C-alpha cells in the first residue's frame, strides 16, 4: 500500500520542485520504507517554514512548541542556522520527564540518559556517541540556563535540528538512502557544505520512548551496513566537488540570538 501511495504522489507532482526518485530494496531486505522520500514529502507539505523533523516516538518537553514559536516570531531562524534540540531516552515504564529539573533528577537516578550514550539505562539500539553525545556536549547543556551555544559538526553527527526550510540552498534529503542508517547523517553533512552553522538550544529537549522492536531492524542493519558506508563515502566525495551556497547568510550574532532566547523564555 505504501508503494502505491508513493507512486500516486509522484504522478500528481510531476514537474514540481520536489525531486522524487524511484526506489527499490534488495529482495533480501523485506522492509519497504523510503525514509528520505517521506522526509522530503513531509517537508514539502509542511505548513510552516520553520520545521523540526523528528519521529513520532519522541515526546517534547513541556512548552517546547511555544518556545520554538516564540523564537520564530522573534526572528531567530532567519539565516542559515540549524538548532539542535537535545535528545534523551528513559527506562521503559517510568514517567517521562517533562522539564529540565525532572530530567536531571532522572539522569542522576540512572533512569534517563542522552540518547545512544553509554551507560544506564541500556539502549535497545546500543551506543553511538558520535551521533548525538559528541555534538551536543551534554555536560555543558546541563549547566546552561538561557543561552544557546555554537558547536562544530563532524562526520557521523546527526542531531535533531530545527531549521528554516525557506532559506536559499536548503537541500533535500538524499533519496538514495533506502537502507537502515546514514539517512540523517547525509542531510547534516549537506547542510554543513552549504554554509549552515550549528547551535544547541537551551532548556528544552525531547525524549525517545522505548518501544517494541521490529523484526527487520537487526537483520537489515547488518545486511545493509556495507552499502550504507559506500553510499556515505560517495556522498562525501560529491559534496567536496560542489560549491557552497552563493547567497549571503543573514544569521545574526550569538549575542543577538541569546537576547532572543532569554526573552522567549
Automatic annotation (TrEMBL):
Molecular-function GO terms, alphabetical: glucuronosyltransferase activity; xylosyltransferase activity
UniProt main location, coarse? membrane
Entry keywords, A to Z: Glycoprotein, Membrane, Signal-anchor, Transmembrane, Transmembrane helix
Q: How does this protein lie in the membrane? A: Single-pass type II membrane protein
Residues of the signal peptide: none
Can you list the GO cellular component terms from the UniProt entry? membrane
Q: Where in the cell is it found?
A: Membrane
Is Repeat one of the keywords UniProt gives this record?
no
The protein's matches in InterPro entries, at most eight in alphabetical order, are given as: Nucleotide-diphossugar_trans, Xyl/GlcA_transferase
Q: Name one GO biological process term.
A: protein O-linked glycosylation via mannose
Top-rank taxon of the source lineage equals Eukaryota
Q: Which Pfam families match?
A: Glyco_transf_49 (PF13896)
Record's protein name: Glycosyltransferase
Taxonomic source organism: Mucochytrium quahogii
